[in-house]
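Morning run. Coffee first, then this:
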Amino acid sequence: MKDYSELYENNMKTLALALDYCEQNYSHEEIIKELALDNDIKKQLCIIELKKINSQEDANILTQNLTGKSGPVREAASYKILELISNNLYKNFFQTKEIINILTKGITDINPTVSRNIIETITYIDNTEYLISNIINEIKITLNNIDDKSKSRSYVNNKKNFNLYWNLEALINIFFNTKARNYTISKSIIEIIKITYKSKDYTIREKTAKLIGIIQYNNSLDGIITALKNDNNIYVRKYFPNN
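And here it is:
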């Protein structure tokens, strides 16, 4: 009972503290200052209260909360970044390579809500080629960073498939974006497709099929498309219906 009572008491203290923070009014400068500190409860509230970006430093500080922080902070930051980057008044503050690098890491956040927010966020990035290059590099690392001995370990494969799933989804979302429609599909993407279409995980084959369906490609993928048309999973086959 002692442990439960201590847990209850700690929870009540945290709640009281959060309520106290909610009753305070913060200036923009005070909010940005808190985002650079380590009080997670106060930081979450300040992220929610953030209404604008006044400088590149403001954008940098906000974006830095997307990685290496607690789950609730990362999630709040992902919502706020999406909200601000989608506003033409603040979009330009989120276009640096440093920020694109952080957003790329956020694609495979362990919290799927963060991943979804970031995948939508990156459609507002202007430097499409740099962004795509980043994602391709992340996929290559995932594909190359597993040795033969580790392939039988389910947790390693799960992590690998998790990273592949979200990075492929990110590429798909980018290519749906008007700015990326004229992007020339690189040999790297073709090589990735040649590996991922054979995945034992149907969700990876599904994402591969969806990616192929929206990119401009040559007949080098005809054999892969045939295989996907005949896949044993309906969710994979649906992207290449047999006529």
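The chain has 13 helices and no strands. Good start to the day.
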